[in-house]
Amino acid sequence: MRYYIIAGEASGDLHGSNLIKAIKAKDADAVIQCWGGDLMEAAGGKLVMHYRKLAFMGFVEVLLNLRTILTNIKFCKADIFTFKPDVLICIDYPGFNLRIAKWAKQQGLKVIYFIAPQVWAWKENRVPEMRATIDRLLCILPFEKQYFKERWDWEVDYIGHPLMQVLESQSNLPHPIPSIQGQPIIALLPGSRKQEILKKLPVMLSVAKYFPSYQFAIAQAPGLDDAWFASLISTAPNIHIVKGNTYALLNHSKAALVTSGTATLETALLNVPEVVCYKGNPITLFLAKRFVKIKFIALVNLIMGKEVVKELIQSQLTTQNLVAELQKLLNDPAKQAQIAADYAQLKQLLFTGSKATEVAVGIILEEIDKQA
């Protein structure tokens, strides 16, 4: 079979790579063309476009790069038309993927959406068109199946969260900084995009001087320039950089300061107490407050329906607040016990008994067989 897969972010590349491995395990003759990253390419997909060329976040940023986005959409359609896949698989990244999915359906292609767009947060008006366009919608958050059924009378598939299988083998990783082995670490996860790192990392770094007995280590995302990244910490004490080894860093950390996104869930599933940090473009935030209908920004809190981890957003993201929250995580036994209990419940909600990508591949092959 011929598979065309589109992922537009680092997390999509990770889950896409495991999906490709699962496809190849079931279909030895699979031919896979993809938009994604190094992981999807290493798994056996022919990489057409790297996600680093697609990573625009926020209302303002998208508007500023609209011409590039439209050019990419045109190119993607042409590439799919030439490749002639048996199925199009979209991984999250809704602003781009929903446009491609609609076009693909018009061409008579089978469309599977792996990792449903978070329309329950905003842009619910997308759902009717999604329902007309997508043959199977695969959800990874437990409340999404109920949401689509009760609000839209749409039967979708809950497959469990793919991070559960990713993190299964990440519990005994070697120490990422051998020179400080045995010393307590606080991890800083500032994100993978330069614009978000520039806004959040300086505030994160500012707390280091208040915790002289701890070593601070920054997770540097793959693809970021080493010299540029190092220049951001040239004046900060007790700082180390860990590149491309975030899970090992978290495994050996006492706490973490984490930018909003998938990393907040990864940190929780690795049992690391965390503070969630967000600071974005003021215009983007103003618009988000008008249109986004969720109480929390951290996936951990959204899934649990309560504040499990502290969120410091925009003006709340200050050195004083970060220091206060870190003190609680490191020194308050009651706080530590509550977080541990909540993390255990979180894992129960996200595990279905099978690997999410294997469930997804079963559904994909089932849909392909329907049109055979």
Q: In the CATH hierarchy, what is the architecture of the largest domain at level 2?
A: 3-Layer(aba) Sandwich
Q: What string, H for helix and E for strand, traces the elements in order?
A: EHEHEHHEHEHEHEHEHEHEHEHEHHEHHH
Quaternary structure annotation: single chain
Strand count: 13
The H-level CATH homologous superfamily of the largest domain, spelled out, is Glycogen Phosphorylase B
Radius of gyration: 21 Å
Apparent shape: globular
Beta-strand content bin: 15-25%
Please tally the helical runs, counting DSSP H or I stretches of 4 or more residues.
17
Task: Draw up the topology in text.
Blueprint: E1 2-7, H1 10-26, E2 31-36, H2 38-43, E3 46-50, H3 59-64, H4 66-83, E4 87-91, H5 94-106, E5 110-114, H6 127-133, E6 136-139, H7 142-152, E7 157-158, H8 163-166, E8 185-189, H9 194-205, E9 215-220, H10 226-231, E10 239-243, H11 246-251, E11 255-259, H12 262-269, E12 274-278, H13 282-291, H14 299-304, E13 310-313, H15 319-331, H16 333-350, H17 356-371
Parallel strand pairs: 1-2, 1-4, 2-3, 4-5, 5-6, 6-7, 8-9, 8-11, 9-10, 11-12, 12-13
Helix pairs in contact: 1-17, 4-5, 5-6
